[in-house]
Design brief:
By secondary structure, this protein is of the alpha/beta class. It contains 10 helices and 7 strands. The protein has a domain of 169 residues: Vaccinia Virus protein VP39 (Rossmann fold). Strand 1, helix 3 and strand 2 form a beta-alpha-beta unit.
């Protein structure tokens, strides 16, 4: 199965407008790690997670299938970026103390990825997989945004999107001491910032490609009268599963 790349075409937007992850998520992940020598951030995108892990590990290996995404990544001396599939990597056996994948597992051949995880992880290493669901703004705005998500761009989502909507509950996680946690990422965004975040969605990019029209523009016209402050609170529900190898 060929890897799916839905983000190279707008890597600059992705780097600017995708969210990072809250400190309490990293607290949980790091508390399950027994050694902090080498971590692997798989499907690193623009290196958000790799950059966070670099403060705690001697070395971070960060991979992605998109050269354009990696070109946008934050650079630190102890992060090494390279192009690689999730399911087949250049790493040696029993290399990593921690393996992470954020908002990308649904694009993988999950059993093949987990087989690779078992190969490259040290005995007792931790694996953490997480993602985030539908953004929430307010009681007035949320139904309009949900209508956009389901009905305007709904037909343009890849089938894998259902795994995100289900918080990965139907994807296998065959690891010991499995735990599930939930977090909320809270941000204060202008309407323009919010709309540009929506433009990073793969379904929006596919709609734009097929129709030669940006669907977010019309949504912005609907939201503008209801966006009552210069910066509005937005929330992202985050789901995490973590286990031991």
């Amino acid at each position: 199965m060929m890897p799916v790349d839905r983000f190279s075409g707008h890597a600059d937007l992705y780097a600017q407008y995708r969210i990072d992850y809250p400190a309490d998520l990293y607290d949980v992940v790091l508390s399950r790690v027994t050694q902090r020598n080498v971590a692997w951030d798989c499907a690193t995108g623009n290196g958000q997670v790799a950059g966070a892990l670099a403060a705690y590990f001697d070395r971070v290996e960060a991979t992605d299938i998109s050269e354009k995404q990696l070109a946008q990544a934050v650079h630190q001396p102890n992060i090494h970026y390279q192009v690689s599939m999730a399911e087949q990597t250049p790493f040696s056996d029993q290399t990593f103390d921690l393996i992470t994948v954020a908002q990308a597992l649904h694009w993988f051949n999950v059993p093949a990825f987990h087989e690779e995880v078992r190969r490259v992880a040290k005995p007792g290493a931790a694996i953490a997989e997480w993602g985030y669901g539908m953004v929430q703004v307010s009681a007035q705005l949320d139904p309009i945004i949900l209508d956009f998500y389901r009905n305007v761009i709904g037909p343009y989502w890849d089938p894998q999107r259902r795994y995100v909507d289900g918080a990965y509950a139907t994807l296998p996680f065959p690891f010991d001491q499995a735990e599930h946690h939930n977090f909320v990422a809270r941000r204060s965004w202008s309407l323009d910032r919010f709309l540009n975040y929506l433009r990073t969605w793969s379904a929006v990019r596919q709609y734009l490609y097929e129709n030669e029209e940006d669907p977010v523009t019309a949504l912005g016209d609907r939201l503008k009268p209801l966006w009552t402050a210069d910066e509005q609170d937005v929330q992202f529900p985050i789901f995490l599963r973590i286990g031991r190898i």
